[in-house]
Each structure stands twice: as C-alpha cells, then as structure tokens.
Amino acid sequence: xxxxxxxxxxxxxxxxxxxxxxxxxxxxxxxxxxxxxxxxxxxxxxxxxxxxxxxxxxxxxxxxxxxxxxxxxxxxxxxxxxxxxxxxxxxxxxxxxxxxxxxxxxxxxxxxxxxxxxxxxxxxxxxxxxxxxxxxxxxxxxxxxxxxxxxxxxxxxxxxxxxxxxxxxxxxxxxxxxxxxxxxxxxxxxxxxxxxxxxxxxxxxxxxxxxxxxxxxxxxxxxxxxxxxxxxxxxxxxxxxxxxxxxxxxxxxxxxxxxxxxxxxxxxxxxxxxxxxxxxxxxxxxxxxxxxxxxxxxxxxxxxxxxxxxxxxxxxxxxxxxxxxxxxxxxxxxxxxx
Length: 338
Description:
Elements: H1 3-8, H2 24-27, H3 29-51, H4 61-91, H5 98-120, H6 129-143, H7 146-157, H8 164-189, H9 191-220, H10 237-270, H11 274-277, H12 282-320, H13 326-333
C-alpha cells in the first residue's frame, strides 16, 4: 500500500460520509480542526474516567471518533486528532517520548481505517448490507491492529510486559479499539439522519431509549449472584435493539446498541452483571462483554440496513407505479435486498 493513494483518499469528500450541520464557525478548516481537538479530548477524558478499570480499557470510544473525524474532515480532522491526543496525554501526566510514537499510532490507525472504508465503499455507508457492512467490519478489525501493535510493542520493549501478558494485553487492546470503532462510528455517521427522526418521532424515540436503558440497566447491572443471570437474561436486550432497528432505522439501532453496550461495560467495571457472574476473573468478563457487544452491534446494523433498504424499495415501487405497468414494478420490487 503506497502512501500516495492513502493520502489522496483523505481529501474532503462528504458524498458518502456527510457531516452533520454545524454552525458557520466550525465549518472552516481551522474550525473543524479545533472542534476535533475539543471533542477528542472530552471523549478521551470521559472514557478514561468512566470506563477505565484495567489497562487497556475494554472499549475505547476515541478510536471511533478518530475514524469519523478522518472521514468528515480529512487532513484537518487528523490534525485535530494529533493535537487532541497530545493534549490528553499531557493532562494525564504522560511526558515520555514514547507518547509521541503512540500518538502517531492513533493517527495512523484512523488514516488507514478511513482509506480502507473509502476504497471499499463507493456509496453511502450502511445503505446495503451486502455492499457496505463487510468492508466496514473488515476495515474496523484491520485498522485496529495498528494502535495495539505500537502500544503493546512499546511496553514489551520497555520490559513492562513479558510472556503471556503481552499477547493477552494485545488482544484486549485490539478488541477495545475495535469495539470503539464498531459502536461509535455508526452512531456518529448516522447523526445527519437523526434530525428527521427527532422531528417526527422524538417522543417515541426518547420513550424507546428510556425503556431500553431501564430494562438493560436492570439486567446488566444486577448483582452477579442474581437469579435472573441463570437464564442468560442479557440476551433479552437484543429484543430492544431489534425494535429500535425496525422502528427507527440506523439512528435508533446504533443509539440503542451504544446504550446497552455502555451499561454492560459499567456492570463489568462495577463487578456486577451477567458477564461477571459466569467469568472466573475480570479479563474473562471483559472478553465476554466484548463478544456480546460485537454480536449486538452487527445484528443491529444488519437489521437496520435491511429495514432501510426495504423502505427505500417500497418508496421506489410507489413512484414507479405511477409510470410503469404493475408487472414490471412487481418484478423490480422482488429483487433481493441483500
């Protein structure tokens, strides 16, 4: 992979990845850079405060935002990630030269992820499961190899990690960054679609997310010795995600999945919930919740994308019925969605 196509792919092109409407002050290049710095620093600080229990964290949302910033704002977004990561490290008292290398790893990971997405998806993301979901998952898990390799490799060279601990930390780091991209990137990329839902179905959406939070919180943060965990009740949360996907499409599905995943992580962090109940130690609980989040998010994306494609097909069928014969319309409508 040469550097030239990677760099040229990062030129601002919001056809497939439109950014949400922003005030005029943030729409300029310098404005987008400053906005990226601010958001990245806030997301990283909040994530560290709320989600940190071990190093590395089970999920790292800044990895998802870094990819979105590269897709939305190109080089200026990447510049904001560099400054945001640097300021974040300084705020945590990390002044070692190795932190500069890790900052490069964060930016390189976002750059490669954006390149793979733009290379593999030539249409708006999350519109057709067959054509867009595969490249998104592939780019997620491939690009997420970069930061863990740099970070864990640096620790191994400094002899702060040895033996089996190196591979165990690398796996946790890789899955943490992958989960951050898998959960945060779809959530942010569907923000432009959220406006119409908030305008037409705001109360229903808020009620649905509130119910999702209550039920999921009851299940995922119940004491680890609670009877309900014997029935693997954590999978009841899938029904809430399915409803959100079918009713609200991608914005609702990604929001519900993100909410459930955060509650699952907080439960593990507090030492409660179903993943702690069936795990021998904290690392096993983290791995279990990471697998759960992956299955949850992929299921939500497939359902929401299929429902969106179905609605699009129905609208096209209605429009075609005005001009063509019913037989032709039925033939076109029966084309496979996936």
